[in-house]
Design goal:
The structure is a homodimer. The first copy, chain A, is of the alpha/beta class and about 240 residues long. Chain A is about 35% helix and about 25% strand. The first copy, chain A, is built from seven helices and twelve strands.
């Protein structure tokens, strides 16, 4: 069913009022009056609506059912992925939103090949990333639009990630603790962070810092995953082992 | 460490003989005489070699250690992914090889938007796909080069997939059996197949056929995954729950 995110303030009196962009989108989808679509308030509530017209003759949705969004997992998974070349961060954002991540944070790391110079460039990138998150949230049936942030400082990214109940640092040279065992040891964690490196991997000083700040260094197995594959794999593991897949 | 796949017949007398393409690649990597690299025979054996020259003055590898490839999982996971638009099948192949799949099969399905017309086109596609598999196998440290096939007939794809000890049919309308529970119920399976649909999902007749042939219809959770995300997610689940991640 077609899905739109609409601010709760645009729903009242049993009607979901649509912006002109949304009305245009509904025309593109060739939805006809009487047909149903889903509106989500971005706070985890879904509204099934029947397409109708307002007194002014504009397309709107008549709310016929309200329920919690089924697409929201019971665990908050925050992704922290190092800045990468080309469109890899975009792939990570799209896939991790589909898989159920709560937020995605991109940060610079010592061996990053790619750089973002200045606040204006960061703002532009973030705007584009946020759009990708929105599209993925609509397509996959999420109840929220996961926030995407660019964190300029590696140390701040570590401090934020370390805040999770189960903070996982995905390190290719780790050979003792598997992500499976780390999650199974703390299956009831309400928040999990997954922290992944750039193309060239983490610098040793970065690993040291993360472990000092309380993160658990874990492995994704004996195969070397590309930098954009590791976050998807880690989010899948977190969802699967906490009963959300 | 740099990694090459070399036919076992090119290794004898403690020396790995390199083709001119491989010698060129070694020059590009700026490997110097005395430095080490890994050669894999594609049958699960790794050879650590020291760069040297043959009597004829060509670059070769002097084998200093032989061991089973660490990159091979204990379970054979066969991916069956429906033909998809653009470069989605390529993404699936690259990611599933990294994640440890044994083989990848692409097949046409009723609601496929994309088509491959004729044997020549299929052969050309398969050749390209196989190259992607090789590159991903080298990069991720696999001990084999997973085979990629194009199966022209949906029924044959189902018959092949149904042969696995645990044949999983990923169906978005399934709401009872999760992939987690299906795998946990048969954790010792030596072979698992994961069968995923095209952009428009499977046709009901296809689901019926697959179940008749003995496949288990399973869900990947309440979020709708894109057609290229589902195989990666399913392979991750299979590896994670069989102790291979």
């Amino acid at each position: 069913m077609a899905r739109f995110f609409i601010s709760a303030s645009n729903m009242f009196g049993g009607i979901a009022y649509l912006t002109s962009a949304e009305r245009d989108h509904i025309k593109v989808l060739r939805l006809r009056q009487g047909e149903t679509f889903t509106v989500c308030d971005g706070s985890g509530n879904d509204y099934t609506c029947r397409l109708d017209k307002t007194e002014e003759g504009d397309l709107c949705g008549r709310i016929i059912k309200t329920e919690p969004s089924v697409g929201e997992p019971t665990v908050n998974v925050a992704v922290f992925a190092a800045l990468a070349k080309g469109d890899k961060n975009e792939t990570v954002i799209q896939k991790c939103v589909e898989l159920g991540a709560r937020e995605i944070n991109i940060f610079p790391s010592a061996r990053c090949v790619s750089r973002i110079n200045g606040q204006a460039a960061a703002a532009k990138k973030t705007e584009r990333w946020q759009k990708i998150s929105l599209e993925a949230a609509k397509q996959s049936g999420r109840g929220i639009i996961p926030q995407v942030r660019y964190i300029e400082d590696f140390n701040i990214a570590v401090a934020m990630a370390a805040n999770a109940e189960l903070p996982l640092f995905l390190y290719e040279n780790e050979d003792k603790l598997s992500i499976h065992d780390a999650i199974m040891d703390k299956k009831d964690a309400k928040s999990i962070s997954v922290f992944t490196g750039p193309e060239g991997g983490f610098d040793e000083s970065e690993v040291k810092l993360a472990v000092e700040k309380g993160m658990l260094s874990v492995t994704l197995g004996p195969r070397i995953l590309r930098c954009e594959t590791a976050p998807m794999c880690a989010v899948t593991a977190a969802m699967l082992l906490t009963g959300n897949l």
